[in-house]
Amino acid sequence: MLSTMQDVPLLISRILTHGSTVHGSSRVTTWTGEAEPHRRTFAEVGARSAQLAHALRDGLGVNTDDRVATLMWNNAEHVEAYFAIPSMGAVLHTLNLRLPAEQLAWIVQHAADRVIIVNGSLVPLLAPLLSQLPTVEHIVVSGPGDRGPLAGAGAQVHEYEELIAGRPTAYDWPELDERRAAAMCYTSGTTGEPKGVVYSHRSIYLHSMQVNMTQSMGLTDQDTSLVVVPQFHVNAWGLPHATFMTGVNLLMPDRFLQPAPLAEMIESERPSHAAAVPTIWQGLLGELTARPRNVSSLTQVTIGGAACPPSLMAAFDKLGMRVCHAWGMTETSPLGTVSRPPAHAVGTDEEFAYRLTQGRFPASVEGRLTGPGGERLPWDGESAGELEVRGPWIAGAYYNGPDAEPLRPADKFSEDGWLKTGDVGTISPDGFLTLTDRAKDVIKSGGEWISSVELENALMSHPDVAEAAVVAVPDDKWGERPLATVVLRQGATADFETLRTFLAEEGRIAKWQLPERWTVIESVPKTSVGKFDKKVLRRQYADGQLEVTRL
Ligand code: ADP
Question: Where do the AMP-dependent synthetase/ligase domain residues begin and end (predicted)?
């Protein structure tokens, strides 16, 4: 028997219409680095999104399914592109501005982008690539920056403001099939070649509802969210869409992502929430320690993208900034698990440990663990295996061109369609995920596994250590052993012996897991989305570029 309910498609245009009317007075504030930030209401963003859609369709001839890329910082115009492009039936393709040039060019060609909207300050990055981008017909430039380098480009160049000016401020958004492509994003390639994930209207809509749930980010129109996570990093973790559902104000840092301007915007704009990867927060913590500011408004910080070191969570707690740890990936839109402790643990000694886990599965995301032999492992909090997930906002394949069959590589998708995450961990009986490592980063020592993340967290809890990354290196006797690469704080006195002893104390790390190989580095190399880049460290070690001490 069929239901008697209406079948209304879940569309991004619906989120835009709702946000720009019901929450029309909420604001997108963009940091400008000048005396006053730039402010625009959701109603204005709605009107300008309609103008942008008209400009793309009538001005540039963008059709249904055409890919329109953005090479932009987090700002109001990028939010307009987020809504206009999918709502009109085209596909938003967010480009990662920190990728190496050749990878960026490869991605634009793979997606066959027809238009690129670029921030003026990023023109120097785009211009030299254009000769390799035959599919790109139009470049639309927004915001300050020299347009000079675009002279002589094969593509037509337009000014964003001129292009949208005078166009109608309403658009008759098409009633699309909710399963159609809305946006695409390539994985940042931390562990391999970039792979394209194509989100649907339905997946983004449902994911936005999850982001808004009390046990996820749980924000309301009384909140302001500082979105540091880039809009090219998995849709800024869904925040632009989710906030238009609930009227949460957005504070966008544009290109001002260094610790000092971040501290300044927190002090002057007083956001209540912020989201970014751990390395951003480590930087902010250093800044706040050196130059204390009034950050009392910021009471909730979402940390994800890489494991949150316990020392960071504890330091933020002291500043009144409560960390909520979350796990996800490009393929999961990205929200997978969120670490809200269960009621029985709140206020007890267990609470901190729960908060440090990657979090609990929401109703719409199913998780299971698979052992090395393909066997299903129990949720007992002890059996460690590869995490597999499925749900309505989890990728079921990778993009392989508009007319080609999507790719379903056997190392990424199980035969019954679950996503193999490449993350290794345990799940407790009450559904909390604890990741011990990425399958590719785990150190396989004499048939046992050593978690690189555990070693890093323990090292970073030493007061003399600013950052630490641990990678597997070949070892004649054990197969692999850990190499500890350490960034010391200014004026630090600890030597390797001291750090090794510290790791062994208070049962932090089992004796057989202690690293013998140590090196001091200036900073840990980072990926395009600010995670530790262990590929680079492994290569530097293999090339003999690191000065290693053996204890
Ligand atoms: P990339 O794979 O290129 O780094 P993603 O942003 O998609 O790009 O990364 C997803 C991966 O990041 C996950 O598979 C996991 O390894 C890691 N990750 C994300 N959140 C966390 C977290 N809270 N703790 C540990 N690892 C995390």
Answer: 36-399
